[in-house]
């Protein structure tokens, strides 16, 4: 059967992913011109390459329309419920590092842990007449971390699709859950990460959709060992 | 017009509710989502069915009746006391069982005789379940958060710790974790480097200077001092946190709290056992115990079968509007909760009522009662 591997369609992620596949002996060539969204692997006739956006790759892995994908762990865990049952994280690729963190204003001198935040959240409605507001695009990861891991229920998620770090200063939210790689954007916005506020240490991963057809398929095994050997 | 999927005993149940002196109310199936999320927390979002109105308002299919019945009471402003009954479909995303099922129940709003209205809620719930399942022995579990609050208060813990423990009541795992933290001196509070600088500058002992400093820093960094937590809020909780970090629970007190949480006995024996516990430990629990005893007496007074009720000290619901009594009704030897209820004195003011309205109620899981009837071989 033909195996489809989805790679990020642009930017650093695309270049870094292509480089790893090349080191693995799977040189990727675009079908047609350079801008094409389809590709193939030289010498691997039963492998197809699809160039998709990183968040589409997580979605397509979830519904099984592709076999492998290279994308950030954060996008997969945010996009799919029960991610580990539906996909397998086969290899961590060493690029695209980003931590999903809980960050609060630096001036909150009394808040350095999730337990502190739990105290603040429990009291928030009584003091301010509304729930603690969290700006984020990571609904699922936030709910798992707050409700699942730390027993914090009384908060309100304000969806934020960009410039999330600015939300506390502008007053549209009290705290944020966002990705950070160096922490410099957080710092510039006078935010600090909580001591136990790292929800996920994400990086680009080779992810496989769990499909029964993969069992015993020799190509699946060959792709896995080729990529792992190149790391 | 009766719906075709109504449980067969619905008419009997409604007649019984009426004979109990309640007023039947209906509430729309489509409800604003905000009150449910605000009361139960963001996690509820995954378990209800949400949609949006054309204007962007978040709506949901009614996931339960208590909040809609209370909102309706506040809107109609017809005064208290009121005893409302309901029967209708609710909608929740469940792992097991259907996503739409019937619930019925009674909400008793505004009765200031706490013991009597508590006893009536438990007694009525037991009676309507027993009448659907003649010949089956019930098993009722009863808990009371206000006794736990009294125990924690009498232990002399600082306010911050009391709040944490009470907030976790009903969530065994979380509560045990907090108790372990209280006992273990290693788990000190985490403070940032900025707090050390404040300490060196002598600001931590001078609240006025601290508040001014926080206010100036917020101004300088572009944070509005009125949009979120104020400088006073932060300074006050910083002080509370230092207390939290400096508090250790001595092993004796910790044992005592654990001993209390392990109490599990027939309700009839509970008043004497709680009295002995207070006497032995030297804790002053008089008010809470008097109210507990009054409720037990009231239950006996209305002829409820007290023998099938157990008191479990750790039993509670981790929702902050439950304030005292909680209970569940099962058939003895089976795990399904057929009725659940409790006292929620804080809910109506949280929902916008202007005056304090004491409230207690229960709801019946009609699908589970149907299953129990089928299991006992009876006709529904």
- Write out the CATH superfamily name of the largest domain in chain A: Periplasmic binding protein-like II
What's the CATH class of the largest domain in chain A, please?
Alpha Beta
CATH class category of the largest domain in chain B? Alpha Beta
- Can you name the CATH architecture of the largest domain in chain B? 2-Layer Sandwich
Task: Note the main sheet of chain A.
Answer: 7 strands, mixed
Order of helices and strands of chain B: HEEHEEHEEHEHHHHHHHEHHEEEHEH
Total DSSP helices of chain A: 9
Count of DSSP-assigned helices of chain B:
15
- Range of helix content of chain B: 40-55%
Shape field of chain B: globular
Shape of chain A: elongated
Extract low-pLDDT stretches of chain B: none
Output the radius of gyration of chain B.
24 Å
CATH superfamily of the largest domain in chain B: Bira Bifunctional Protein, Domain 2
Q: Which fold name fills CATH's third level, the topology of the largest domain in chain B?
A: BirA Bifunctional Protein, domain 2
CATH architecture assignment name of the largest domain in chain A: 3-Layer(aba) Sandwich
E-strand count of chain A? 12
Total individual domains of chain B? 3
Backbone structural class of chain B: alpha+beta
Q: Oligomeric state of the chains?
A: heterodimer
Molecular structure report:
Chain A: It comes from Ensifer canadensis. Chain A: Pathway: Amino-acid biosynthesis; L-histidine biosynthesis; L-histidine from 5-phospho-alpha-D-ribose 1-diphosphate: step 1/9. Chain A: Its EC number is 2.4.2.17. Chain A: Pfam families: HisG (PF01634). Chain A: Keywords: Amino-acid biosynthesis, Glycosyltransferase, Histidine biosynthesis, Transferase. The complex is a heterodimer of chains A (231) and B (380). Chain A folds into two domains: 3-96 and 203-230, 3-Layer(aba) Sandwich (D-Maltodextrin-Binding Protein, domain 2); 98-202, Periplasmic binding protein-like II (D-Maltodextrin-Binding Protein, domain 2, 3-Layer(aba) Sandwich). Helix content of chain A is 35%, strand content 32%. Chain A has nine helices and twelve strands. Chain A has helices spanning 11-23, 54-63, 73-79, 83-86, 114-128, 139-149, 167-170, 184-188, 218-230, and strands at 3-8, 28-30, 38-41, 44-52, 68-72, 87-92, 98-105, 132-136, 155-159, 175-180, 191-202, 204-209. In chain A, the strands form two sheets. Chain A has a seven-stranded mixed beta sheet with strand order 2-3-4-1-5-12-6, sandwiched between helices. A five-stranded mixed beta sheet of chain A has the order 9-8-10-7-11. The relative contact order of chain A is 0.20. The mean pLDDT of chain A is 92. By secondary structure, chain B is an alpha+beta fold. Chain B folds into three domains: 1-137 and 337-380, BirA Bifunctional Protein, domain 2 (2-Layer Sandwich), CATH 3.30.930; 138-185 and 249-331, Bira Bifunctional Protein, Domain 2 (BirA Bifunctional Protein, domain 2); 193-246, no CATH class. Helices cover 45% and strands 17% of the residues of chain B. Chain B is built from 15 helices and twelve strands. Chain B has helices at 10-19, 34-40, 66-76, 114-132, 145-154, 159-168, 172-183, 193-200, 207-220, 231-246, 251-261, 270-281, 286-301, 347-350, 366-375, and strands at 23-24, 30-32, 50-52, 58-61, 82-91, 100-109, 138-144, 264-266, 309-312, 325-331, 339-343, 359-365. In chain B, the strands form two sheets. Chain B has a nine-stranded mixed beta sheet with strand order 1-5-6-12-11-10-7-9-8, sandwiched between helices. Chain B has a three-stranded antiparallel beta sheet with strand order 2-4-3, covered by helices on one side. In chain B, helix 4 crosses helix 13 and helix 9 (207-220) crosses helix 10. Chains A and B meet through helix 5, helix 6 and strand 9 of A and helix 2, helix 6, helix 8, helix 9 and helix 10 of B.
């Amino acid at each position: 059967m033909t195996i489809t591997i989805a790679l990020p369609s642009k930017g650093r992620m695309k270049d870094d992913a292509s480089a790893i596949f090349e080191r693995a002996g799977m040189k990727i060539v675009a079908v047609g011109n350079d801008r094409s969204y389809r590709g193939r692997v030289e010498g691997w006739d039963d492998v197809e390459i699809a160039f998709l956006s990183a968040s589409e790759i997580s979605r397509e892995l979830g519904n099984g329309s592709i076999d492998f994908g290279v994308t950030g762990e954060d996008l997969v865990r945010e996009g799919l419920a029960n991610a580990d049952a539906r996909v397998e994280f086969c290899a961590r690729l060493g690029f695209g590092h980003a931590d999903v963190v809980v960050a609060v204003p630096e001036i909150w001198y009394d808040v350095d842990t999730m337990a502190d935040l739990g105290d603040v959240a429990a009291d928030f409605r009584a003091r301010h007449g509304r729930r603690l507001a969290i700006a984020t695009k990571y609904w699922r990861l936030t709910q798992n971390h707050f409700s699942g891991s730390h027993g914090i229920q009384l908060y309100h998620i304000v969806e934020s699709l960009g410039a999330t770090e600015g939300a506390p200063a502008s007053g549209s939210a009290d705290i944020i859950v966002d990705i950070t790689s160096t922490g410099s954007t957080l710092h510039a916005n006078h935010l600090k990460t909580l001591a136990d506020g790292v929800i996920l240490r994400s990086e680009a991963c080779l992810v496989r959709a769990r499909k029964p057809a993969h069992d015993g398929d020799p190509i699946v095994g060959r792709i896995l060992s080729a990529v792992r050997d190149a790391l | 017009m009766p719906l075709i999927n109504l449980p067969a005993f619905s008419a009997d149940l409604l007649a019984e509710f009426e004979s109990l002196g309640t007023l039947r109310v209906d509430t729309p199936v489509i409800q604003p989502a905000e009150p449910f999320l605000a009361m139960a927390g963001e996690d509820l979002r995954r378990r209800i069915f949400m949609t949006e109105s054309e204007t962007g308002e978040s709506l949901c299919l009614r996931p339960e009746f208590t909040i809609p019945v209370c909102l309706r009471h506040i809107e109609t402003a017809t005064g208290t006391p009121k005893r409302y009954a309901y029967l209708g479909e609710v909608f929740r995303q469940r792992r097991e069982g259907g996503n739409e099922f019937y619930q019925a129940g009674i909400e008793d709003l505004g009765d200031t005789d706490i013991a009597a209205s508590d006893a009536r809620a438990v007694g009525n719930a037991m009676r309507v379940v027993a009448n659907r399942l003649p010949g089956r022995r019930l098993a009722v579990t009863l808990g009371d958060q206000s006794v736990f609050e009294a125990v924690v208060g009498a232990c002399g813990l600082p306010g911050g710790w009391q709040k944490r423990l009470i907030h976790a009541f009903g969530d065994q795992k979380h509560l045990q974790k907090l108790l372990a933290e209280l006992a273990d001196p290693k788990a000190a509070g985490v403070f940032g480097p900025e707090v050390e600088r404040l300490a060196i500058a002598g600001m931590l002992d001078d609240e006025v200077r601290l508040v001014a400093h926080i206010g100036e820093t917020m101004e300088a960094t572009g944070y509005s001092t009125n949009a979120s937590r104020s400088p006073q809020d932060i300074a006050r909780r910083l002080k509370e946190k230092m207390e939290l970090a400096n508090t250790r629970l001595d092993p004796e007190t910790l044992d005592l709290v654990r001993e209390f949480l392990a109490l599990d006995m027939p309700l009839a024996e509970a008043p004497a056992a709680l009295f002995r516990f207070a006497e032995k430990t030297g804790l002053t629990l008089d008010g809470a115990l008097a109210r507990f005893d009054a409720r037990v007496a009231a239950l006996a007074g209305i002829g409820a079968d007290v023998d099938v009720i157990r008191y479990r000290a750790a039993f509670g619901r981790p929702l902050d509007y439950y304030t005292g009594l909680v209970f569940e009704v099962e058939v003895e030897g089976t795990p399904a909760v057929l009725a659940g209820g409790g006292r929620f004195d804080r809910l109506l003011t949280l929902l916008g009522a202007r005056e304090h309205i004491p409230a207690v109620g229960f709801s019946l899981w009609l699908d589970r009662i149907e299953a129990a009837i089928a299991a006992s071989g009876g006709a529904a």
